[in-house]
């Protein structure tokens, strides 16, 4: 189904998503932003995927809307680790292997399916029918904290904090070698990889703004280190891409990780035991955990902060890394 709009004469040039939201009142600005980024909107006949791009009076907009009946997720009884819940939101400690929402290649078995079972029909619909309640995402094989909105007012409040970067998210990551300096910010735009569509990449001026702060909290000789990462933006695979960009990819990362030969060289140089080698080389997911989250409650105004311990697999990995000096 397609919808057509024309930017009225006399409209000052402005952000694509903002102007489209004023023309298409049946959909939230957050939903329209997602559709823009997914390539579902054309301006003057050409696809435009940057929500911040400027459009102006007279521009012709065509919006492709996915059929609702093909994307409605169903409730499924999937265990959730809920740290906090009230009438407005939930804070979830997401387990490894749980995809956040349905998408290409996975129509069910997601966090959304679990939330629909737990919350019924009360979840916020701002994210679209395939992403009810979802304010932000973490990768399938990244563990840790997420906040979920139960209604639209909560969703708008949390999304605004995310946009203004007052919704804080702190991750623990284990990377190869030791970054120098031990504290810094990676400021490098990220976009979809030009040839490998499952990957993201740093693309100079062609990507979207992306900034990740990092701090080394523990080193394991010269072989590896534990770092704390804070997100100033929230791009797909951001921490994984940024750390690989500065030559310190995450341990276990199947997409952006260090070449197997180089892993072996570092382990041997560090004098790692067979047990340590097995723990490191056998770690089959990105060593990344969303351990802290903070925000202002969108209804009560209360400051909220949550933290969670490392999952068992990362704790096991850390225990072996500690033997490296």
Structure description:
By secondary structure, this protein is an alpha+beta fold. It has three domains: 2-65, Roll (Structural Genomics Hypothetical 15.5 Kd Protein In mrcA-pckA Intergenic Region, Chain A), CATH 3.10.290.10; 72-164, Pseudouridine synthase (2-Layer Sandwich); 170-290 and 315-321, 2-Layer Sandwich (Pseudouridine synthase). Helices cover 23% and strands 27% of the residues. The protein has eight helices and 17 strands. The strands form four sheets. Strands 7, 8, 9, 10, 11, 14, 15, 16 and 17 form a nine-stranded mixed sheet that branches. The protein has a four-stranded antiparallel sheet with strand order 1-6-3-4. A hairpin with a 3-residue loop joins strand 14 and strand 15 (224-231). The model has no long low-confidence stretch (mean pLDDT 90).
Percentage beta strand: 25-35%
Low-confidence stretches: none
- SSE order, one letter for each helix or strand: EEHHEEEEEEHEHEEEEEEHHHEEH
Helical content class: 10-25%
Topology:
Elements: E1 2-6, E2 14-15, H1 16-23, H2 29-37, E3 41-43, E4 46-47, E5 54-55, E6 60-64, E7 82-85, E8 89-94, H3 111-119, E9 143-149, H4 152-164, E10 168-176, E11 183-187, E12 190-192, E13 200-202, E14 211-220, E15 224-231, H5 238-245, H6 260-269, H7 274-281, E16 288-296, E17 303-307, H8 312-321
